[in-house]
Each structure stands twice: as C-alpha cells, then as structure tokens.
Amino acid sequence: MKFKKTFICCWDVLNGCDFLIIGNHLNSIRNNKNFNDNINRILDLKPKGIYMKLRALIVDDEEFARKNLTMMLEEYCPEIEVIGEASRKDQAKAIIESSDPDVVFLDIRMPSGAEGFELLDEIENKNFLVVFVTAFKDYAIRAFNASAVYYVLKPIDIDELKMAVERLVETQTSFKEEPENYNTYFSSLKELSNNLLHKTNSSRIAISHTKGLKIVEDDTITHLEASGNCTTIYFNDGSRYLDTRTLKVYENLLNPRKFCRVHKSHIINLNILQEYLNEDGHFAVLKGGIRVPVARNRVTEFVRMLKEH
Q1: Which of 110, 173, 261, 289 has CB atoms 3.0–4.6 Å from 61's, for a disulfide?
Q2: Which position has the higher pLDDT, 25 or 101?
C-alpha cells in the first residue's frame, strides 16, 4: 500500500492562527464522505475575532508620507486595514464622522503645529485611538510618554511601527470592553496638546494599565520598580499599577528634581525620602519605612542630589 498524496491545510500564521497539517493520507480516501466532511468542518473552525482588523485613517498633508505609511502598514502590520487617507483637517473630520475608524495615524504638524490637535477637539464622538506620526523629538517625546499615547518618529522605523500597532490592539480590546476609558484617554490628549503647543510642564502623567488609563499627579508616586520590560508604580495611598512601559521611559519623563534613579530596578520620589542608610549595604528609606536599595555605582550621584534637594 502506497501513500499517494499529502493533504496540507494551513491557516495564515500572520493572522495569528496555528498551522494545521493533515498528512500522509491514502489517495483512496479522497472520495470518502466522512473524510471530506471532517475537512470542511476543520476549515470552518476559524477562531472568533482572530481576523478582526483595526480600521485606520491616515492623516498627513504630504502625499508621499501617507502612501509610505499605508504601504508599511499593509506590508508589516496585518492587524491594520487602511480605510482612507486625508490631507486636510476638514477632510479628515468628514471621514472620521462617516467611517468611524478604530485608529487615526495623525501627523500633528499638518500643515500648522496646532491643526492636528484642533481636529481631535472638533470630533464629537471620540471612540478611536490615535498614533501620532511626527518629526518632533526631545521635549515632545517626554510629553508623549507622559500622556501614555502612541507615536512613531519620522523617518518611520518598521520595528517601532509594529510595536505601536501591537500595543494598539491590546488597548483597543480593553477600551471596547470599557468605553468610558476613551474619556480619560482624550483628556490625556488634551493635556498633551497644552504641553506641546504652549511648552508647559505638567505634573500630571497618564499610566496605562490592564483596564485602561489612570491620570495621576506625580507627587502621589512614592517609587517605581522594574518588572521585566514593565514598570510597577507605587502610590502614597498604598495602591500600585503595572505599566507596560520600561523604567527607562519613566526615568526620562519624570521630573528629575523630584525623582532619582537609585538602582537599575528602582526610582524613588525624593520628596518622601526620610533617611539614607549605608550600613550592610545602601538603602533609601521612604515614608512608611519602605526600604529601596541604592546601587553602589549610583551612591555618589544620589548623595549629591540629596545635598541639592
């Protein structure tokens, strides 16, 4: 008896499905009704939701930039379906109101510094996420991180784009379950607008967590601790949140006059520091008796900051 054929049925791995292989079947069973019925049943077993894509609008006054981003999303981000492009604020507003996208990729410099934020203010039904596409650097990046928004820098890096899309998918899932998160999210965008357009420094930061966003005053943070590629943030009321951003991101966005990185895994709020101990190691003691280790190679800088604080 010889095996005549191998029947291979695969679901697209790029869409998040597993490969299903049915191999080494006899040619004689090709006409077997039970076999064919089973194959049809298997092909119908598409996991629910696995093919749901985020519908995206791209807003940029430069045609090349729009086409380039569309091409990159189609090539590298199968989770995204581009439903339209817009070069002007009024055009983008009309598409958002008529097509109800899940996400808007927005160049905030089109064509003036304020127009992108004006667009967001004018939309009444705010039930979408935003990815800022910008050439802004330095100060703007700190503002983006403080507002817990997604952004990609021009020229666009493929890995950064894929990472932003991955986070979008996670966030959109939680927002659909709890739509009130959109109110907090757009409040954060409003504050971002003020920070960028008026060059103001806010003490408020937005923290992403499993159920949405939390906007807090930085004075309420006691310390932060690295948890792998995430950060656990501790507050003076005893609560804590796990954010998907790294401790390095927080080191850059928190006020350096208030916060000090004392260890590769720890940042403390200097305003609640009560004592520094250098017996049997180095420790910063915070209010409530919380002991945070101070790395040996950071002691000199830490002591200097204490004297200047």
Answers
A1: 110
A2: 101
